Amino acid sequence: MTHLNSERKDVMLSPSLLSSDFADLTSSVREAEQGGAEWLHIDVMDGHFVPNITVGPLLVESLRPVTELTLDVHLMIEDPDAFIPQFVKAGADVITVHQEACIHLNRTIAHLKSLGVKAGVAINPATPLGLLEEILPDVDMVLLMSVNPGFAGQAFLPSLFRRARTLRSWIEREGYECLIEADGGIKLENVAQVYEAGVGVIVSGSGVFDTPNPGETLKQMRRACEATKFVKV
Ligand code: DX5
Ligand code: ZN
Question: Is 183 one of the catalytic residues?
Answer without folding.
Answer: yes
